[in-house]
Structures are given as C-alpha cells and as structure tokens.
Amino acid sequence: MQEVFDRLTDVVDHHRDDLGWYHQLGKLLHDLRSQKGGGDRWSMKRLAPALGPSDSTLTKALRFVELFPAEADLRKVKKLGLNWSSIYNSFTIPPAKRLAFLATASKRGWSSERVRFEIKRQFPTSRRGVGGRPVRAPEDRGLELNLEEFARLSRDWLNFYERVWEGGRHPVESQLLEAVERGLDEHKRRLVLNVANAAKEVGLACRAVRRSFTNLPRPN
What we know:
Elements: H1 2-13, H2 19-34, H3 38-41, H4 44-51, H5 55-67, H6 71-79, H7 84-89, H8 95-108, H9 112-122, H10 143-165, H11 172-182, H12 186-214
Helix pairs in contact: 1-2, 2-5, 4-5
C-alpha cells in the first residue's frame, strides 16, 4: 500500500493538465483503494489533504478510470481532442450514448461550456454535476423566506438580462437579430420559439405578481 501511495504523490508532484495524467492518477487511486482495507482507510476526503488536489478532482479522476479502464479506452478518448472539463462533464451521460456524444462534440468543435450546455439539454437529470445532490423543487418556507427567495431569483434574472441579453460586448439580442438575418436552422428555430414562449409566460406571471402588490392595502 505504501508503494502505491508513494507513486501517487509522485504523480501529483508532476501534474499535467492532460487526460493521460488524470487517467494515471485515477488508476493509482483505484489500486490504492482496491488493496485490503484501502477503501475504508482512503476516502477521497481523507486523501485530498495528504496529496494536495481537492477531493472533487480525485473523485473525478477515479470515476474516469472506472468509465474508461483500459489503455485502449483512453486512446479513443484522447483522439477526440477534448479537454478534461468536457470529458468529466460527460460522466453523467448514459454509457451507451457517451462516446457518440463526445465524438459529436469533437467534430463540431464545441467548447467545454457548450459541452456542459448540450449535456444539460440532451440528457436532463435530477442530479447536479458528477455526483451532486438531487435538485430540490421549490417549496413553501413561510412568508418572509418566500419573499426573500422571490427577490433573489428576480435579481438573478435581471442581472442576466442586463449583462448578457442586452449588455456585454455582444448582446444576445444583437446575436439573435444577426442569426435571423442569416437564416435559422431547425434547432435554432425551436430554441427561439421556446424562449419566446417562456418569456411570455414569465411576463404574465410578473403582471400577476405586480397586481398582487397593487391590491395590497396601504400600511398605516
């Protein structure tokens, strides 16, 4: 066990930001935890302070090896030319569809941000991230907390609108007009329709909320 741990520390000391390094790290973590008593003794949270990388990084590296255990698997993934962020975000995709999705991402030159977006769109899940907690539905928490939450969500929406939709170096509104002039493909037409319908529903809901406040009696 000590020999494996020493090799782990050596790998961490010679960090590289490539898939081969993460695969090597994950394989040694797997070997360490596979030894007698290793799984109980060496949790990722316990290993992180001893090695240096966060427990999240260690968990992702271990998962990488679990999903792509053989060197041949690693070579297939490397040939795609995708970065580590794109690869570990794909861990939530069903196994039968994962490589096909990654091949599409590679062919279309998607950024890691676009990969995350497409995974959320194509493979919606009730969990956040590789091993996140389940997404909780909104719930009634009493008047004061409900009002505070509504204000927070409203500010978040307004911040996105001001900084991204109509602000920034290239506002979404301008991008949309340019895209319409060039001609929208079927996918973009569906996106535009979805956003238009969502904006209409939000607008109706906002008017209803404003009526609620308008109808409140004036405080004494």
